[in-house]
Amino acid sequence: MPNSRKIHKEPIPRLGGVAIWLGTIISFFMIVLFTKYPYGNGLSGILIGGSIIFLMGLVDDIYDLPPKYKLFIQFGAALIAVLLGVRIDELWNPFGSVIHLGIFAIPITLIWIVGLSNAMNFIDGVDGLAGTVSAIGAVSLAVLAVSTVHPQPIAALLAVILAGAMIGFLLFNFNPAKIFMGDSGALFTGFTLASLSVVGLMKTVTFSVFLPIFIFAVPILDITYAVLRRILKGKNPFKADSEHIHHKLIHLGVSHNNTVFVFVVTAVSAGAIAAIFVHSQNLYFTVIALLLIFMAIVLRISNFFSVLDASHEHHYHEPEVHSFHDIDRD
Hints:
Elements: H1 16-34, H2 43-63, H3 67-83, E1 90-91, E2 99-100, H4 105-122, H5 129-145, H6 153-170, H7 182-202, H8 210-215, H9 217-232, H10 245-251, H11 256-279, H12 283-315
Antiparallel strand pairs: 1-2
Helix pairs in contact: 1-2, 1-6, 1-7, 2-3, 2-7, 3-4, 4-7, 4-9, 5-6, 5-7, 5-11, 6-7
């Protein structure tokens, strides 16, 4: 239903996640039936944990679950994936040997999976935005998973399946949207992509910890900006508002389609940077160059939003939001 936070004006169903989940699961089971099942690489954990996340999101889309229960279930589903092989065991150290995480592998992996799941849910605020960014991220992940020194074709295939399901959904989600993916679709997609990035990249490339950060730069930057902004303003970092980057562009007068286009260009560019990273012959030079570019972009964005926030105070009053469970569902 429309409200003061939502951009759409008429009631729109939000169970598109059902189609996304079914398309992914059925396609994967077809692979299991007609090929040798790829044991030992965490895919069982991804599908089981992702299905739990989907079911939780489905119930929440209908009945609005309390936030603490949602977060508990998310960590539980992520823990299942970790116990079944989805785990970040080491991090790349540019100044020496790799850092073995040991007992910290489980909490770091849990934070990554749950964090990216919610980050994908955060950007689901404009017609076609989350779906497009997810599809681009899935394709980028698939390409890199088969182009590393130790390719992971099964992880790449599952990423392509997810991209295909998302593209089918997008036919009905572009502005004006006929259906939303809801929490069930956004959380399932974020969970699957986060887990696939672990088994498809982080276990195969020594410096691969940076690759998912670039691939999923759009949702990561958005959730980081949202949480830091709320903390600096003395607000609850989990309390929903209408000040995400896509909201600011809409309030500035940018159309729905142009807003999506801005994020698409950013997502494609980030994926291209990740590809350059994989095939770079001079890794240290690449790291320094990318850090300088990133700092310049952040500085530019900060200046832009400082000006925007100043004018925003005079023209826009923040609508009242009552609870965390309403965060960027639509």
